[in-house]
Amino acid sequence: MARKFSLAYLTVPGIEAVDQIRMAAEAGYDTVSLRTIPMGQQGEPQNDLIREKDLFAEIRRTLQETGMKVLDIELVRVREDLPLDYREVFEKGAELGATDILSSCWTENQEFAVEAFGKICEQAREFGMNVNLEYPASSAIHDLAGVARLQEKVQAPNLKLFLDMLYVFWAQDTPEAIQAIAPERFGLIHLCDCPKDHYLRDRTETMRARREYPGLGAIPLVPILKALPKNPCSIELPNEEYIHRYGAMGHVERCLAHAKEVLQLVDQ
């Protein structure tokens, strides 16, 4: 089965959902990963699909016109001061065809985290969706062992481990550690590379503006990806320099071309 590639929102930061869909279709992606949960960050579109009915209709119409599908929606952050009821958001995502939700844990309170993810997974299950748990370097849980323990405590079949290659690299998670976990526990994959001079850069800058094309950076992607099941890859690769040099469309095309080259080595 051919590997599926999705265009993540952050690859072209600030992009409107409709433009992201059209760009992904033109570049040859299979799906899109949309940010439909407003995060309130400056410079980002706040896609409130519950209240903005015209926007929801426009996104659905654009999906139909382009033949694109939505892979996942983002971002559910678990933290004490954030909501735990996402039913309406998940319902809208499911109506657009999304099968997955991206999430991360931002609380040190393990008891709260287990309870919160249990509730969120139950809500997602109502719409046949998986919740993918990521471990950003700046979040409360920032390695594979940590999210695996939380997954075990939640005991929700639709809670999956989501591996972003950048965070796998920084956490020094090995292919052997990945292979020690049952394949069905893993979900989607964020694909990118880390610049070779990453040790000279601020991690936040690297995460949000300096990710490298797959195969051109410091991450040993092939052995890591070989250890994972052949699940869809969402390309999350913001790079201000490349967008300036190639334009947003050129950057998106190069992301996919480099990703396919790496995955050919993985899947052969």
What are the salient characteristics of this protein?
eight-stranded parallel beta barrel, alpha/beta, TIM Barrel, 10 helices, 268 residues
Number of strands: 8
| Rg (CA only) | 17 Å
Given the C-alpha coordinates, what overall shape results? globular
What share of the residues does DSSP label as strand, in percent? 15-25%
Any guess at the CATH architecture?
Answer: Alpha-Beta Barrel
Oligomer: single chain
The SSE order reads: EHEHEHEHEHEHHEHHEH
Mean of all residue-level pLDDT scores: 96
Structural class: alpha/beta
Q: End-to-end span in angstroms?
A: 12 Å
H/I helix tally: 10
Helix content: 40-55%
Largest sheet: 8 strands, parallel, barrel
In which order are the strands of the major sheet placed? 1-2-3-4-5-6-7-8
Count of folded domains: 1
Going by CATH, what is the homologous superfamily? Divalent-metal-dependent TIM barrel enzymes
> What is the CATH topology descriptor?
TIM Barrel
Q: Runs with pLDDT <50, length 5+? A: none
CATH class (first level) name: Alpha Beta
Question: Describe it for me?
Answer:
It is a single chain. The protein is of the alpha/beta class and 268 residues long. The chain has a single domain, classed as Divalent-metal-dependent TIM barrel enzymes (TIM Barrel, Alpha-Beta Barrel), CATH 3.20.20. It is 43% helix and 17% strand. Strands 1-2-3-4-5-6-7-8 form an 8-stranded parallel barrel, surrounded by 5 helices. Helix 1 links the parallel strand 1 and strand 2. Helix 1 runs parallel beside helix 2 and helix 4 crosses helix 5. The mean pLDDT is 96.
